[in-house]
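Homework help board

Subject: predicted structure for assignment chain

Our instructor gave us this sequence and asked us to write out the predicted structure in token form, then describe one feature. I got the tokens but I'm not sure how to describe them. Can anyone check?
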Amino acid sequence: MTQEPLQSLFVLGSSHHEAPLEVRERFALSPEQTGMLRAALHEVKGIRECVVLNTCNRVEIYGLAEAGIEEEQVRAQLCQIQQLDRSLFDAHSFWHTNLDTLQHALEVASGLDSQMIGETDILSQMKSAYADAKSAHCTGAVLNRLFEKSFQAAKSARSQTAITKGQISIGNVAVDLASRIFGKLTRSRVLLIGSGDVGEKTAQALKSRGAADIAVSSRTFEKAHALAHQFEGAAIDFADFRTHLEHYDIIISSTAATGSILDRSTIQQAMRRRPERPLFLIDVAVPRDIDSDVEAIDNVYLYNLDDLSTIANENLAQRKTEIEHARAILKQHAWTLWLQLRRRALMAKESGGPPGPR
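My token output:
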């Protein structure tokens, strides 16, 4: 019987570490592109398993491939699907293999690699990406174990350290900023544009702190209506939301648009109809929904993901010990998992079965 070649774990990606927001928004994949990329990679000869993780701050491909598979092939697939300039992507991306892949996956799952260190949303996003890949039959024994152990390790790091302590979510930071601008939020009116998960959670955080009047506008009116019902608010037709801007004090934009939906002229018109009243804009979309030059308008306060993350991480120095403790815990988990996978690979090689990572 001919032995199959040994295989390698890998992760190719780009995140806030490698790319500024204006570059990350060019790398962002739509849900359709995410599925297309996963399917295309699974058809590449020699790639046994793959998972595509796409969030507001990162695009990552996790895979198990035969030893002959080159980094070049994986990069080419991503750039082709997203129609990216290869030199731009190469300048703002990373490539890890084997044990480094395991360590990276565990740190991502735990929130240690997040732009807001210790945030918990990434865990559910990883679980969703893994579930989609598994449902599409793109995972097998190795990535199944990698992701399931990553989720367990993330819980261990969080339960044994205080890395999640403090304001480490976009929603919490937004509430704090809104309170500085408006004081009590009981009279603040909120408009949520889009039905994105981050925008929804931000609106929920504002409601929990007293914002009682929350309206929703989305390209799909049914989604807007369903989300507005959760907030006991109103749904606004997407074609009409710009004519209602002056009525709102806080606007959260989280659409999947490929370009901006709010420009300086539109905001200036709204401000003329609400003189002396501040407007708080929170743009959590990637690509961004709101042109950056609107912040030059008097009484307008615009914050994007990078701005909110900078504020959330202001107390990083105080949490440095906890972060290092969590990283040490994850390193031990990664090493244990690596030894388990290597043992399986050696046993498979001796029995003539499918090998694991080399």
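Reply (TA_rk): Your tokens look well-formed. For the description, you could write something like this. The mean pLDDT is 89. That's the kind of observation they're looking for.
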